Amino acid sequence: MRAVLCSSFTGPGDLRIGEIDEPKPAVDEILVDIHAASVSFMDQLLVSGLYQMRPQTPFVPGTEAAGIVVAVGDKVTKFRPGDRVACSSWTGGYAERMIAKESKSVRLPDGVAFETAATVLHNYGTAYYALVERARAQRGETVFVTGAAGGVGLAAVDLGRHLGLRVVAGVGSDDKAALVRGYGASDVINYRSEDLRDRIKSITGGDGIDVGFDNIGGAIFEQIARLMKWSGRLMPIGFTSGEIPSVPMNLPLLKNYSIIGVFAGAWAEKFPEEAARVNDMLMQLLAEGKIRPHIDRVLPLEQVGDAMRAVAHRTVQGRIVLKIK
């Protein structure tokens, strides 16, 4: 079968389309005929050797996809051949068929397109885990989301609106402001052209933010650490700047705020039943129109390198989706 192959950790430019054997599902896995797969920042980090894990090469990248079940393992009870599903795994999505754990797969509601379904589990799953499970965000609280026009960031804006939060969106260019406002941000800050401290102080009346949802890391995180409200929750989600920040620990001490780690992928591995329930709930919200994943563009599988470069250069709003069938 056709698949994208990563033979060395040298980045998107060295990815190639090749032929590989069809994978076989283990007892707790399903085999999915893939119709669409999404491209995340994590995917391009993985093929560039910049992620915290390195699969054995050659491997098929792609962490999230959607399609039709064609076979199930002996212990699988939730799915059967013919079911339409979205699924996630650390690798394998950029291929005609992939395997995924039963616990990391979810049945699609009627009417949900494969392209849309392939953008939900990672983006909205991370946003939900961060805002609901980790921050315990309450209606009316103020959340500041950085990288707010990206896949996970925009999901946090969208879900934050649904949860009744006041969402302040941080973006790196003015052309992204309209999108995040359309998804529910009450205020937008361009942290490359505006003073982040002054704008946050102005927006919050000097109180600071209840919840910090940071995808960027580096200097942005260090600034947010000085803008937290008493008893706030500051969450590192990722480090797209490439810089892991350091925070003087007198800052959380003085305002009694918490710094809370968010690694949704590890949580899903450790607590698969809880993660599966969240996936089911997210698909229900999607079917009811309460969340609205944004697809920047749909590209053929052969343009996977272009898609990853666009993600790395931060020219993507929402997600790029690869159409496989």
Describe the structure.
This protein folds into two domains: 148 residues, Medium-chain alcohol dehydrogenases, catalytic domain (Quinone Oxidoreductase, Chain A, domain 1, Alpha-Beta Complex); 142 residues, Rossmann fold (3-Layer(aba) Sandwich). Helices cover 30% and strands 26% of the residues. It contains eleven helices and 15 strands. The strands form three sheets. Strands 3, 4, 5, 6, 7, 14 and 15 form a seven-stranded mixed sheet that branches. A six-stranded parallel sheet has the order 10-9-8-11-12-13, sandwiched between helices.
For this entry, give a set of tags.
Quinone Oxidoreductase, Chain A, domain 1, Rossmann fold, 2 domains, six-stranded parallel sheet, 30% helix
Q: Which secondary structure elements does this structure contain, and how are they paired or packed?
A:
Elements: E1 2-5, E2 16-19, E3 29-39, H1 41-47, E4 64-72, E5 84-88, E6 97-101, E7 105-107, H2 114-117, H3 121-134, E8 142-145, H4 151-162, E9 166-171, H5 177-182, E10 187-190, H6 196-203, E11 209-214, H7 218-224, E12 228-236, H8 250-255, E13 258-259, H9 264-270, H10 272-287, E14 295-300, H11 304-312, E15 319-323
Parallel strand pairs: 8-9, 8-11, 9-10, 11-12, 12-13, 14-15
Antiparallel strand pairs: 1-2, 3-4, 3-6, 3-15, 4-5, 5-7
Helix pairs in contact: 1-11, 3-4, 3-10, 9-10
